[in-house]
């Protein structure tokens, strides 16, 4: 397992991180939660502005800087600056714009059974979760396609680094909030997501849809499942720098922030297939799931009906199982959770399995011999099982993802 930095994956160290955001964001269960901070701002500088010029532009506001972004986005995060000073700073010729550093949340329903005392620390014999079965992932495995060596980034609360169902598949880690610390999961959400994608086929616990995909834990959310947008942006840029193939973001905010969209565009342009949860408020799709470059995923139950709380709208691209999903949890535990957070990784697993199959000439719209994000989306949508009204709709998008059909 390696620690990921902005330049490459180096050494054998383990790192950690967290993440955040703002607005009046919606929590997993649909309730409005107070922001972590209402006065954090992302000051975006022009690309040609040097670090020293950034300091000069800030002047005495350097003392308000709590984070510096230097890789793809030239920006400083400030806290506690009054509106007048921000207006003054926005007029500086070195400054491109000032964005809100909004709070972003894990998109999981409040019915977290493990927290109610049902967490299992000693796994029983391995089961095939109903969601993995429903997308027909297990039918792909006999062909020898288990998604190795596709690299999947889990931008979330981290992953349990010692979990027997996950550890062998974790190939890199990064903590965007505290880069010198571990990316170990102190919440459980990220481990649950990771297990849906790539839990090991080892005879215990569960097995993931892309059971041999290489997992990369990018910790951007804290132990409460929330974090700042600036850390998510850093996590996305780390994924780009380390040439990941797929990233899953089971998180969201109601705020459409330019710096967030720009990071998503960078990842898409780098060839990364981005999959994200639609949201759990029963209304409009959250960001990043609503961005055009992202595969937005709604949640269905075991009867293939959209969950009442699943967000919906024209930005929904696909549907996937998201109700009562059994998967890994923090430590060595297991839990049953619900949410579009659980639906999204089923599609991420499907993308990984598809990308491990050579692209055919008729699928290769960009004629470059590899799967580009738009081609992955098109294939998964073309082979999805239509649900609801005939054709694409705002509940299910193109339909329920079916990876066995996709890889044919």
From TrEMBL:
Record-level Gene Ontology MF annotations: metal ion binding; serine-type endopeptidase activity
Domain Peptidase S8/S53 intervals: 150-399
The keyword ATP-binding is annotated on this UniProt entry: no
Active site: 156, 189, 341
Gene3D superfamilies noted in UniProt: Peptidase S8/S53 domain
Record key words, sorted: Hydrolase, Metal-binding, Protease, Serine protease
Pfam families, per database record: Peptidase_S8
BP-aspect Gene Ontology terms: proteolysis
Family: Belongs to the peptidase S8 family.
Protein name per the record: Peptidase S8/S53 domain-containing protein
């Amino acid at each position: 397992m390696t620690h990921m930095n902005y330049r490459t994956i180096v050494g054998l160290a383990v790192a950690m991180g967290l993440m955040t955001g703002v607005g009046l964001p919606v929590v997993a269960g649909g309730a409005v939660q107070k922001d972590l901070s209402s006065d954090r701002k992302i000051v975006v500088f022009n690309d040609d502005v040097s670090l020293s010029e950034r300091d000069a532009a800030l002047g005495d506001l350097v003392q308000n800087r709590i984070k510096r972004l230097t890789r793809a986005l030239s920006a400083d995060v400030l806290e506690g600056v009054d509106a007048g000073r921000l207006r003054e700073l926005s007029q500086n010729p070195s400054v491109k714009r000032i964005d809100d550093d909004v709070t972003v949340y894990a998109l999981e329903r409040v019915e977290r059974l493990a927290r109610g005392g049902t967490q299992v620390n000693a796994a029983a014999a391995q089961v095939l979760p109903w969601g993995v079965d429903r997308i027909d992932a297990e039918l792909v495995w006999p062909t020898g396609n288990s998604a190795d060596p596709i690299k999947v980034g889990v931008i979330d609360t981290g992953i349990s680094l010692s979990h027997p169902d996950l550890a062998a598949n974790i190939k890199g880690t990064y903590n965007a909030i505290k880069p010198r610390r571990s990316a170990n999961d102190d919440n459980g959400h990220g481990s649950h997501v990771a297990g849906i994608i790539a839990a090991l086929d080892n005879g215990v616990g569960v097995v993931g849809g892309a059971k041999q995909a290489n997992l990369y834990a990018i910790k951007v959310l804290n132990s409460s499942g929330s974090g700042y947008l600036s850390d998510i942006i850093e996590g996305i840029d780390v994924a780009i720098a380390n040439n990941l193939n797929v990233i899953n973001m089971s998180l969201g905010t109601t705020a459409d922030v330019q710096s967030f969209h720009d990071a998503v565009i960078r990842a898409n342009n780098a060839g990364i297939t981005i999959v994200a949860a639609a949201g759990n408020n029963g209304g409009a799709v959250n960001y990043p799931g609503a961005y055009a470059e992202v595969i937005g995923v709604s949640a269905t139950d075991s009867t293939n009906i959209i969950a009442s709380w699943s967000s919906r709208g024209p930005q929904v691209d696909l549907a996937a199982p998201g109700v009562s999903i059994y998967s890994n949890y923090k430590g060595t535990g297991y839990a049953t959770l619900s949410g579009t957070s659980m639906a999204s990784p089923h599609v991420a697993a499907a993308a990984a399995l598809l990308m491990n199959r050579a692209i055919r000439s008729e699928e290769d719209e960009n004629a470059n011999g590899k799967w580009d994000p738009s081609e992955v989306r098109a294939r998964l949508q073309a082979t999805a099982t239509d649900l609801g009204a005939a054709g694409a709709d705002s509940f299910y998008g193109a339909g329920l993802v079916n990876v066995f059909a996709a890889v044919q």
